[in-house]
Amino acid sequence: MPADTVVVGAGAFGLSAALALAARGRHVRVLDPGPIPHPLAASTDISKVMRLAYGADELYTALAEEARAEWLRWNEERRRRGKPPLYRETGILVLTEAPMAPGGFEYESWQLLLKRGHTPQRIDPSKLKERFPAFRHRFGDGFFHGLGGYVESAAAIAEMADRAIAAGVELVTGSHVQSLLVESGAVRGVRDDSGERHFASDVVLAAGAWTARLLPELSRSLIPTAHALFYLRPRSPERFLPPRFPVFTADITRTGYYGFPLSSDGLVKIGSHGPGLAIGPDSDRTVPPAETERLRQFLREWLPDLADAAISSSRLCWYCDTPDGDFWIARHPEVEGLVVASGDSGHGFKFAPVLGRIVADAVEELPSPYLERFRWRPELRAAQFREAARYGGAPRA
Ligand SMILES: Cc1cc2nc3c(=O)[nH]c(=O)nc-3n(C[C@H](O)[C@H](O)[C@H](O)COP(=O)(O)OP(=O)(O)OC[C@H]3O[C@@H](n4cnc5c(N)ncnc54)[C@H](O)[C@@H]3O)c2cc1C
Fold it and tell me: For residue 100, how far is its CA from the centre of ligand 1 (angstroms)?
């Protein structure tokens, strides 16, 4: 039976879309080169930050609250099936060197969380020393929020793929889409590199950092940027376990750094949410030596117990950045039936359980405040990119 909807890409955006569309009674086919989770996909990793702190941004904060509730529900469903949780609620420590101040990410997050009835706890240097001793005291201010932590993202993708198959989605691996089939201003399907054509009345393009390859007119709006990830093996692993070492952001708008507690493999993962490197997603994934030196410098200043920890592995991973840092979930203005679901801007994974609903609303042309925000907006160009996306608003870990 031909699918009525083809989804290109089986990462967080594509699988979430497939699940939501199948729940609305559609026959969905997902295409991906595979295997799933794909080793090069942004979604494939041991952990992704799940936080409600989004500066003064109420839209993302509300969406993160919904996503957290879903992650907890998925944890519970898995518990009943004898499976370990995907979401680990370690809490999140949001730290800053200078006192939190109006207009700053930390202060605005703190205020909005209070306004929405949350109870983040203010952390000063003495509380930091007592509760979170691995962190150096130069962290002057910040807060700890118990609702947050991390998601084991590769495991979550595997779970979503299983759920999709159980819901009747056709998950086709070995299919690398090469072009869209468009006729008389409407999408008719896609063609993959084997020459096979997959016909559908609706196509959702969710190819992560590769999305603009299939739609070159978006190459100045959906911009791949590479970001370094490090997996460190600490000498004293017990110092990096929650509750004394939760997920953290370290004055993130200034340093870019954030990190995670010890994984089940005994590794502390540290990432940098800086501007990234402007190179394409098929480039070499080796981290440039300058990035490693920058990490060491950060660790010496902020987490001295990790400063000489062995780097078990490191790699580059690609965001699909938009000029304003907002997702891009929108119908193509000129090609009927084509929806783009991408532009994750380095902060999309936490929303995996709820993104699909927004994509499905786009496919079905239903109104949504999210679709207004994530609309087609080619007027924003890369020139406006850095400040707006990364440091003008909320950081996107
Ligand atoms: C270093 C790094 C750290 C991050 N940290 C966080 C975090 O802490 N918290 C958070 O919430 N988010 C985080 N993110 C963002 C998060 O990972 C992304 O928002 C999310 O994974 C994007 O999902 P996606 O489906 O758009 O892309 P991807 O996961 O990359 O999936 C795209 C899929 O499309 C497939 N594909 C590509 N081209 C084709 C084609 N031509 N035909 C068929 N299939 C194709 C690929 O194989 C892949 O499976 C981070 C991202 C990176 C890179």
Answer: 32
